[in-house]
């Protein structure tokens, strides 16, 4: 007889693996099925060129919560993060600023541009950290359905209300953070454009928005949700981002979990409104009492299921999820590290800046968005060049380096062209801008891998290339994510659950979708 599982998890991305690991630790018989030949989804490390192990999509670590790392004993299975020294931002006039984990060092940098801003910076950071602490609590709480009278929803609403009550008047400032543009929010604290643009940059990462768009202040907060050490909480994973899924999979398999790659799901099987298993593209059917989908909501409910099995209002909500992406990724193999004109080791205090933002002014960021609004790739894109080989040289052949470039804006669909026509030209423009800040970088390039949103969708199953599985806007967060009434990781199909980035609290290598979904599943069992 065919093996029957307690649970089948669709997708070996970090959320799917985390959910599987928790269920396996609880003694359940779990199978993970993965479409690709490697695990990790967008957190994979791949040998793109001989001898170069590249973090092809996700490239730095920050958001994974300490509880998940501890619960799954990830260091035991290979987890090792190398904290970043500083975030370095060069400006067009040859000046620069380095932001540190040490606020006093950061204040000294800020004072070069504004003494007033240097004085207010600890107040700003304290508010941001207080807000992050509050939101971190929310990360672990299953969003309630405010229209429900079920005991679990009433209890959850009381828990949320109590957390808000404890904040007192701070809740009004957090409301600002949830609704304002990052530009307006930063204007409340700082006068220097240089300081504001360093922080505003985070509000544009991975979103189809500019710094003057409402809601981008929350995207800034989302990006400082991690507390793993290093400048801004950021760091490189030893061995590349693939070390994240490998360590989680190590925990899961140690507790009996099975992981199958090259096993693409064609259909989620149901009978009488209840899930029964999955059918693979190969034609094989696998049965389980519970199925958990780590795929994005549109794939899970509009492709793997017949929409006739689902409530019409739920289907409409999933169809209306905003997933249009303008994020791009370019990976480079280079001879030597870029020589930034604005970087002077003796002044900055580090040998080399491994993490850099190229986005020198607020207007620069906004104009990059303006192009994308009208279906054009940005004429002058903003981007983050990261060099993991500065701290982890084993990722490349001796003496060579890898540069991970992530930025915006490159619309998923172009108005008057196709990405087949524009891909190389856009990459050339990115390198032209890069050359302005680091002369000689273009001549140093050995190989390049260009990933536009359609590529991110095709390779990593990110809906329209969206790294968060959907915009992090107020109407797509908390009890609204991915659809009203289904933010508790349940679905309209009995014993079919969801755990991917389409769920609360959203995307990023955070792991909370997998963590929270497993908790709710185990409660149900």
Q: Mind explaining what this structure looks like?
A:
With 525 residues, the protein is α/β, with parallel strands linked by helices. The protein has two domains: 4-46 and 63-80 and 239-322 and 467-524, FAD/NAD(P)-binding domain (3-Layer(bba) Sandwich), CATH 3.50.50.60; 82-238 and 323-460. The chain contains 18 helices and 17 strands. It has helices at 14-25, 66-71, 103-110, 115-139, 151-167, 170-179, 182-187, 193-200, 216-222, 243-254, 297-302, 312-319, 345-348, 362-373, 419-437, 441-444, 453-460, 512-524, and strands spanning 4-10, 30-33, 45-49, 52-55, 81-83, 86-90, 96-100, 235-237, 258-260, 265-271, 274-280, 285-293, 327-334, 382-386, 401-408, 445-451, 496-498.
Query: What helical percentage do the residues reach?
Result: 25-40%
- 3D shape: globular
Number of helical regions: 18
Proportion in β-strands: 15-25%
- Described by its quaternary structure, the protein is single chain
Poorly predicted sequence stretches spanning 5 or more consecutive residues: none
Got a strand count?
A: 17
Structural category: alpha/beta
Total number of distinct structural domains: 2
Radius of gyration: 23 Å
**End-to-end span in angstroms?**
24 Å
Tell me about the largest β-sheet: 7 strands, mixed
- Arithmetic mean pLDDT: 94
What are the SSEs and their pairings?
Blueprint: E1 4-10, H1 14-25, E2 30-33, E3 45-49, E4 52-55, H2 66-71, E5 81-83, E6 86-90, E7 96-100, H3 103-110, H4 115-139, H5 151-167, H6 170-179, H7 182-187, H8 193-200, H9 216-222, E8 235-237, H10 243-254, E9 258-260, E10 265-271, E11 274-280, E12 285-293, H11 297-302, H12 312-319, E13 327-334, H13 345-348, H14 362-373, E14 382-386, E15 401-408, H15 419-437, H16 441-444, E16 445-451, H17 453-460, E17 496-498, H18 512-524
Parallel strand pairs: 1-2, 1-12, 2-9, 12-17
Antiparallel strand pairs: 3-4, 5-8, 6-7, 10-11, 11-12, 13-15, 13-16, 14-15
Helix pairs in contact: 1-10, 1-18, 3-4, 6-9
């Amino acid at each position: 007889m065919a093996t029957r599982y307690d649970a089948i998890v669709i997708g070996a991305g970090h959320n799917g693996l985390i959910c599987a690991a928790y269920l396996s630790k609880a003694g359940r018989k779990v199978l993970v099925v993965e479409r690709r030949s490697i695990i990790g989804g967008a957190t994979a490390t791949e040998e793109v060129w001989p001898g170069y192990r590249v973090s092809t999509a996700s490239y730095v670590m920050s958001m994974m919560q300490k509880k998940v790392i501890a619960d799954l004993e990830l260091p035991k299975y290979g987890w090792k993060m190398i904290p970043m020294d500083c975030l370095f931002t060069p400006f067009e006039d040859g000046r620069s600023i380095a932001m540190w984990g040490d606020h006093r060092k950061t204040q000294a940098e800020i004072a070069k541009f504004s003494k007033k801003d240097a004085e207010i910076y600890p107040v700003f950071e304290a508010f941001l950290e207080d807000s992050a602490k509050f939101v971190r609590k929310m990360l672990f709480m299953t969003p309630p359905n405010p229209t429900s009278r079920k005991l679990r929803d009433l209890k959850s609403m009381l828990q949320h209300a109590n957390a808000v009550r404890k904040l007192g008047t701070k809740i009004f400032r957090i409301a600002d953070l949830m609704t304002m543009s990052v530009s307006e929010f930063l204007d409340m604290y700082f006068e220097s454009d240089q300081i504001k643009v360093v922080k505003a940059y985070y509000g544009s990462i991975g979103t189809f928005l500019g710094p003057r768009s409402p809601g981008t202040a929350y995207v800034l907060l989302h990006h400082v949700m991690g507390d793993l050490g290093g400048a801004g909480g950021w760091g490189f994973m030893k061995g590349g981002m693939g070390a994240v899924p490998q360590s989680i999979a190590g925990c899961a398999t140690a507790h009996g979990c099975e992981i199958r790659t090259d096993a693409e799901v064609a259909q989620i099987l149901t009978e009488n409104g209840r899930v029964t298993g999955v059918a693979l593209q190969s034609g094989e059917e696998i049965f389980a009492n519970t199925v958990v989908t780590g795929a994005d909501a549109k794939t899970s409910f509009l492709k793997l299921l017949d929409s006739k099995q689902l409530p019409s209002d739920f289907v409409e909500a999933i169809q209306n999820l905003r997933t249009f992406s303008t994020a791009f990724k370019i990976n480079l193999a280079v001879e030597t590290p870029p020589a930034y004109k604005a970087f002077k080791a003796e002044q900055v205090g580090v040998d080399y800046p491994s993490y850099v933002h190229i986005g020198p002014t607020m207007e620069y960021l906004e104009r990059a968005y303006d192009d994308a609004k009208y279906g054009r790739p940005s004429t002058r894109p903003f981007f983050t060049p990261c060099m993991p080989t500065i701290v982890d040289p084993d990722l490349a052949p001796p003496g060579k380096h890898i540069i991970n470039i992530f930025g915006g804006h490159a619309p998923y669909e172009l108005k008057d062209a196709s990405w087949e026509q524009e891909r190389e030209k856009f990459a050339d423009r990115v390198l032209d801008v890069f050359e302005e800040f680091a002369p000689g970088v273009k001549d140093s390039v050995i190989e390049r891998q260009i990933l536009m949103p359609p590529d991110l969708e095709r390779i990593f199953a990110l809906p329209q290339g969206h790294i968060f599985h959907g915009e992090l806007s107020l109407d797509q967060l908390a009890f609204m994510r991915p659809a009203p009434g289904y933010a508790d990781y349940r679905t309209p199909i009995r014993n079919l659950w969801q755990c991917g980035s389409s769920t609360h609290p959203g995307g990023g290598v955070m792991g909370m979708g997998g963590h929270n979904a497993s908790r709710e599943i185990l409660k149900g069992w």
